[in-house]
């Protein structure tokens, strides 16, 4: 009897159990594979029609002959076909991974470098300039604000600390969010927050409100640096990245120059201020804060007209938007160069979606509005935290640790000495002023009318009987263990004036600012205070010491040569040599501070230190952008910038605590930190020839669960 399954039995060759492969074909998906078995015949189709029927006790006749069952043959065929597809997809995907960086670089080269990058450079430069301005604002307004709002020394320290803490938090938060929300959107948020709260701080009359507004402003502008460098780098070609990112660093210097110059011209002069009653006052330092908003405002207007980073859009599967932006960059540049006929050659961009993207889309179409909002923001927060944790991945762990240490060492020394320089100059001025102090011992003055100012004087164990102090200024005057009997004080303006262990009998104070805090351990008998000027009051005839503004201005100007040289040689020498050489040179410069015994030599050493160290800052910012993949670049830069702010807080506190005690310890700490960071920088990988858009294992879309059915490359060019 003829076997009904004989057409399904493979033809045996020379060896038993071996099958002859006689046909090659390709599956319906277009992938080549070898057919392990002959084509299906009509009987095979009939077998399919009866599949699943109960055969009862019917026994397959070929079972004892060692012949495979037709169902097993079909299952094996399907398994082989699926395995072939899977291998083809994985191979195509691996090719895409290898080609993606080069493909994106090719597109940027095709787009060219021209008007678009120049416009973006100016806009992002203004945003960076706004960060530089905000770094100086508090220090410049504090000498005036402390008088206007009666800020104590402890409160002054709290203000400076909170501003740095807010910038630290802003760098962490906005750096991470820029990898999920977008560079442009986050930069708009950052600048808007800074502008709004800086404007409100201009009119804050109480110290509490002023502190809150400056904290919020710092939280906003603190995120600008991670976003700006990431945003600009993603529109640059490899060979132009180091140089143009270094030129961008110059805007931070311009922010310092702008802040110093405007402070020099506005803050010292109070006469044009105004007051509304006794509660609302608007003086020069408030106008200065208002003027400092202009760079952020100009940057915000410019960013509104800039497109999102195409690289970010590709990372988030928004390929159509990315294609339009890349075409805009291409057309803008080539039209400006007089070649409008050049055509954008990219024809197709395709990126797969991650499971998280699909989950968000599903949840966005279901549930209430609050549930959708919760799902979106919870998932986004999880993604940000996942990005932060993934920075410690094995392939980046050692390099990331080196970068953190180098950023810390650089910021610790730079910001620590940045506080030490002006404080040391103030201390030298104080010592010089104190050396000219006049001391009066056991003087007795009766029936005398003091109608001249008392400046930089100490009166010990004096007696003042029936004397009048009228319409005068007392500046840095101290009365110790003295007696005032039947005296009259009227219209007195005092600065740093105190009465210690004095006795006052039958004395009248009329319309003076001499109040409780001016009298320490004094005995008062029948003493009257009429119309006292409680609190702190600005003296409209007094001007702040402009030396501090001049020193800051010169320090900011001194970094110009270092900025220019680092930009010209960043791609020629490499990032590592620039960073290491600059930090070691700065360490040598810090030792020269031991030879500074005057204000002039200290200012010269400060300018030299800033000029050398700025190259290290530029190199650190460039290599931090290039070392991390696009999907994590904003997060990584935000973490590094937060480390920098943390080091600045520690350095400022430590260096300031040694003012007037010794200068050896601060100089030694700065030297040790710079040498440590400079030597460690030589261990970093050179990135000037690296296509930094992806890093191995970093693509979020390459999970097996998200393998696309279409292996079309991400970027296809004609």
UniProtKB/TrEMBL annotation:
Entry keywords, A to Z: Cytoplasmic vesicle, Glycoprotein, Membrane, Neurotransmitter transport, Phosphoprotein, Synapse, Transmembrane, Transmembrane helix, Transport
Record field: compositional bias (Polar residues): 1-11
UniProt topology in membrane: Multi-pass membrane protein
Primary site of residence: membrane
Coiled-coil portions: none
Domain Major facilitator superfamily (MFS) profile: 120-690
Disordered: annotated span: 1-70, 695-718
PROSITE patterns: MFS (PS50850)
Listed GO biological process terms: chemical synaptic transmission; neurotransmitter transport
Molecular functions (GO terms): transmembrane transporter activity
GO cellular component: neuron projection; synaptic vesicle membrane
Transmembrane segments: 118-145, 157-174, 186-206, 212-233, 245-267, 287-306, 400-421, 546-570, 582-602, 608-628, 635-658, 664-682
Domain of life the protein comes from: Eukaryota
Cellular location(s): Cytoplasmic vesicle, Secretory vesicle, Synaptic vesicle membrane
Signal peptide positions (record): none
InterPro entries linked: LD_SV2 (IPR055415), MFS (IPR011701), MFS_dom (IPR020846), MFS_sugar_transport-like (IPR005828), MFS_trans_sf (IPR036259), SV2 (IPR022308)
Record-stated family: Belongs to the major facilitator superfamily.
Name the record gives this protein: Synaptic vesicle glycoprotein 2B
Originating species: Merluccius polli
């Amino acid at each position: 009897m003829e076997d009904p399954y004989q057409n399904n039995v493979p033809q045996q060759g020379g060896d038993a159990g071996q099958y002859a492969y006689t046909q090659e074909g390709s599956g319906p998906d277009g992938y080549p594979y070898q057919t392990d078995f002959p084509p299906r015949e009509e009987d095979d189709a009939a077998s399919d029609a009866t599949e699943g029927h109960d055969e009862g006790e019917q026994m397959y006749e070929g079972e004892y002959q060692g012949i495979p069952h037709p169902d097993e043959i079909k299952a094996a065929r399907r398994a082989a076909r699926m395995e072939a597809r899977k291998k083809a997809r994985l191979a195509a995907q691996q090719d895409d991974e290898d080609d993606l960086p080069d493909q994106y670089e090719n597109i940027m080269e095709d787009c060219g470098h021209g008007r678009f990058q120049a416009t973006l450079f100016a806009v992002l430069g203004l945003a960076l300039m706004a960060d530089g301005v905000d770094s100086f604002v508090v220090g410049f307004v504090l000498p005036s604000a402390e008088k206007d709002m009666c800020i104590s020394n402890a409160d002054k320290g709290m203000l400076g600390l909170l501003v740095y803490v807010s910038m630290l938090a802003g760098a962490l938060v906005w750096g991470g969010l820029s990898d999920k929300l977008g560079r442009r959107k986050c930069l708009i948020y950052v600048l808007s927050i800074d502008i709004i709260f800086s404007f409100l701080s201009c009119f804050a009359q109480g110290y509490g409100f002023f502190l809150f507004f400056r904290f919020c402003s710092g939280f906003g502008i603190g995120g600008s640096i991670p976003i700006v460098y990431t945003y600009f780098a993603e529109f640059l070609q490899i060979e132009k990245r180091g140089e143009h990112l270094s030129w961008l660093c110059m805007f931070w210097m311009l922010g310092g120059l702008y802040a110093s110059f405007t402070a020099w011209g506005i803050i010292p002069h109070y006469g044009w201020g105004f007051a509304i009653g006794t509660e609302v006052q608007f003086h020069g330092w408030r106008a200065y804060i208002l003027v400092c908003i202009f760079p952020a405002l100009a940057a915000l207007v410019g960013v509104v007209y800039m497109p999102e980073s195409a690289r970010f859009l590709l990372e988030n599967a928004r390929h159509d938007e990315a294609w339009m932006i890349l075409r805009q960059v291409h057309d803008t540049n080539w039209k400006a160069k007089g070649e409008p006929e050049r055509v954008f050659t990219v024809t197709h961009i395709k990126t797969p979606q991650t499971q998280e993207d699909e989950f968000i889309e599903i949840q966005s179409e279901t549930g209430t509005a609050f549930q959708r909002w919760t799902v979106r923001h919870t998932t986004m927060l999880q993604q940000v935290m996942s990005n932060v944790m993934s920075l410690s991945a094995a392939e980046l762990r050692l390099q990331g640790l080196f970068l953190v240490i180098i950023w810390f060492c650089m910021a610790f020394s730079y910001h620590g000495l940045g506080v030490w320089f002006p404080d040391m100059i103030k201390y030298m001025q104080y010592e010089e002023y104190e050396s000219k102090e006049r001391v009066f011992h056991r003087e007795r003055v009766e029936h005398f009318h003091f109608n001249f100012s008392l400046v930089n004087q100490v009166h010990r164990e004096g007696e003042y009987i029936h004397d009048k102090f009228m319409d005068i200024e007392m500046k840095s005057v101290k009365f110790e263990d003295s007696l005032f009997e039947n005296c009259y004080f009227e219209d007195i303006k005092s600065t740093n004036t105190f009465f210690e262990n004095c006795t006052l009998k039958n004395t009248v104070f009329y319309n003076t600012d001499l109040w409780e805090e001016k009298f320490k351990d004094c005995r008062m008998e029948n003493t009257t205070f009429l119309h006292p000027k409680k609190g702190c009051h600005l003296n409209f005839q007094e001007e702040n010491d402009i030396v501090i503004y001049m020193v800051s201005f010169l320090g900011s100007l001194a970094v110009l040569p270092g900025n220019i040289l680092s930009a010209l040689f960043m791609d020629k020498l490499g990032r590592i040599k620039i960073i290491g050489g600059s930090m070691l040179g700065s360490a040598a410069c810090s030792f020269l501070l031991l030879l500074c015994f005057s204000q002039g030599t200290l200012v010269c050493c400060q300018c030299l230190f800033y000029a050398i160290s700025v190259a290290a800052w530029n190199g650190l910012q460039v290599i931090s952008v290039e070392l991390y993949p696009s999907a994590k670049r904003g997060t990584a830069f935000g973490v590094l910038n937060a480390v920098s702010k943390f080091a600045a807080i520690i350095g400022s506190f430590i260096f300031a605590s040694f003012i007037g005690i010794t200068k050896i310890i601060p100089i030694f700490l700065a030297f040790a930190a710079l040498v440590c960071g400079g030597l460690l920088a030589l261990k970093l990988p050179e990135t000037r020839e690296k296509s930094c858009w992806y890093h191995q294992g970093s693509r979020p879309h390459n999970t097996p669960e998200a393998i696309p059915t279409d292996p079309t490359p991400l970027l296809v060019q004609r």
